[in-house]
């Protein structure tokens, strides 16, 4: 269908995608700024300590404090470093006879034991300050100490530099949570969600509404966990999203709904997916695409952590067709260039067989990307060189060469990757190669994607339907069956449904889809036509929703942001498992508690189910 | 075991329970007040309207506005009342020829259709103002109108005065949600939870952490829904609370955790319970009972709706033993008196046979309550009268009568209900009668329980263990096996475990348990002893928690507030179903969507389960 190869050309620089840099001006912006100036929370209210370990500074000198924490390490029975969630502080172990019991406690307790100490904040002796430690100017002169709990020998040390396998980290998750990184990730997540709530509830009047998770299966809802009920043969299902409920809330006149919603998807074993995950789920009445997009831009700007570069709005947007043509994907990473260029015209009269072949077919194209400095990293054909004498380049005529250099801005040390084939597939292949080349270049030390840069992008104008994979003659929803068609394309619904664009929009961050939503169908007839006639779904399963649309449903739309992925990108964590307190392994296991687990048969009885043991595991059990 | 009867005596007044009325003084209080002065949210940002229907006043006169809403009613094709979530507004239908199309739209749309109108805010003509309507001084002179959706004939009218059965309301929940009461309940719930979050996160540094709902069964965890996994015979369970996870978070050094947590309990059909419910779940390290209680008092005070009387702190507290003795329950309604009085001493030398009998047994007592104005409501023995000549009172000697009048403050028209029997059972019976009598008196128009009064109470010092119902020789946890014993009673654990009090505390509001928690066991040895030796539980299921306690677990404690019940009490709703957007019926059905539902057998295959059809339903299916 298509082929691709490498050609060694000249060197060039990738053009970074234009970044819109103006901030919202005027009163809204100022108001957002003001309300983000929050009070510092009281971290020691209601508890046995007076202060946290991490907060003590020279300004506390002379204060009598009580601290609670874990023994991080001990030096020659003279110093002890105490740790809590807030930081580390140095404690001086008293050496005089009268404090023998205190000394005994502090010198004998194993590392990671929990102690409470009371004493005075004093300056460290001149020259002994530790500028690398936020509390490095002071230390605690201890008067009394209490051992709150001892610690047995640990499976690994609670030190960030100690490497451990992820399986071990997950098995002892409660120990892994003590690490700086996990504390940072979970606390940032909590703060960011709190600010999102402030923005939605307090600034824009959204109502936080909880929707059920014991629901029924949805059409096409494979991947839904099932829960047997006490009625024989009747099952609840765990929903993949609160989609139906949020639309019903709009019919119910709630006007502005949001929820930090737990969702469920049983995809079996997939890397970096979780069987339960969280989305910021939003729905509004009387809104259009631009309304939802502005809301979300404001939401992210308002909730963005203050230790990161501020978010710049509005976000750029791109149609699905453009994203595919330029980046070969519906979630372009726009932090760097290397865009796909259509070079079909250059080769209209080519003599090269497979190019001729590709171009003669419907949708046939020749596409290419230019990897600047690609010669550094790509295993270019040994005979290829800057004189265009690679196996294929030899057949490219001088005129075509100049045209390529002009079109693709090829410079010395650039490598061109060229593909011929059907438009969509050609783009898709080059899109993947583009990302792989970026990885290769970065592994060699080039910075293509600034780690401090957060590049948001709206992708819009998706197709409403796709051909079914298993049966391309039939249609399936590109996203879900409640998505409204694009107003300009409604006339095509009865004639050329495959050509209809939708009012779906995706939010992309650094090449990751972090959210998606749409304007919904609020017309019952249109919804019935799409479900029954075009999609051939069982309408009975959705009769409540169709009926609701008959009873005065307002126009409405919404979006859902994938919270786990978003926090993962913000914190720079290597996996979503690092921003979830108790994640499952990629096989869906809780390695700490050993869930899922066997159940005694009598616990299945009330639910009228029994296990169907596969033949081989039956045999295994017999052993 | 015991008996009770009525005796007609003299009239008296119930003494209301003392109510502590001082507010927290000083800086904390002022700070709480300040931060509760919130900005009014923008309710029309990002959408097609300029204003909500309910917000328009004389101050908007002359403004050009666009409104979106539902047609509430129409008068003689001249006026139309438009409704949105915020209120009602009167729209004047234009009568001149040039606006014929606008008139047509507004006059022909059925009730509850959705329209958008644009026009000018004008004063109502003098004399036509409606002082009962917040927008009653103005009306909208319409220039343009758009029909956004028509409404078919409704199953019931969207008017609060139209009564409908609860089954119908649940079937058309999206219509019921348009009622004033449901909008009020859900919006109050959202606001109150938001303020709780502000208090916990922003004022006190709590971390909002999501814990898994795909977990494994817990010891004694019948009532847990099961979810088959793709591994044959392996099941997840939906947890009844995040108890284990929150304790593990403390071991993980998170220090202050909270979550608005979805919990699951499969209790079959029970009135006013839901298979999924929500709790405000809290855990802290280095805290004691008083710390948790102060935190919760502050939380409720801070989040309390401003349209209710403010919450007064600290809440009174009472031991479990006192609650039982005075109110016959562990959740006393302290809004009124009628306390239980022990009158055993009055009858030490009685000749009445069944009283003698009761008092001769261990724990034998005679107890009574006095119902003031009880003669109004109680079906007193026809022969009983104020001369003490009821069947039993006749046998009571003059001395005993005077002593009873003194002890119980009996006044004219009072009725005494007397019980003889074992302490706990006698109290329990009188406790129930006390509440039933209060209902009877209130049905007759007496106000015993001020509907504006919120009477909070801590109940403390519960027993740690109870005898198992099915086998009283064995022990079970009164609450759960992680509850710490009372420090004064630890020495009894090895000798008289039944006598050990716990560090559990319940929060009671107007006779309803709205929360409970405890200081937890943080010592692994003690936890193992209680689980394995005293409770004889399968320790393997909890090995991860026991191991965690070995690795430096801090002392910790927490609480969970039942959010649905709390909001139900605050709003005065008749059922928790009225504060949940999409509740299940008492049989656990979603009457709107028809969950739980049948599943095609192929959807059970990946989970290696099959339905065990009971014999009779097998027969039914064959038909």
UniProtKB/TrEMBL annotation, chains A, B:
Family: Belongs to the class-II aminoacyl-tRNA synthetase family. Type 1 subfamily.
Entry superkingdom: Eukaryota
Gene3D superfamilies in the record: Bira Bifunctional Protein, Domain 2 (3.30.930.10), GAD-like domain (3.30.1360.30), Nucleic acid-binding proteins (2.40.50.140)
Segments passing through the bilayer: none
Protein name: Aminoacyl-transfer RNA synthetases class-II family profile domain-containing protein
UniProt-listed HAMAP family: Asp_tRNA_synth_type1 (MF_00044)
InterPro entries, sorted: Aa-tRNA-synt_II, aa-tRNA-synth_II, aa-tRNA-synth_II/BPL/LPL, Asp-tRNA-ligase_1, Asp-tRNA-ligase_1_N, Asp/Asn-tRNA-synth_IIb, AspRS_core, GAD-like_sf
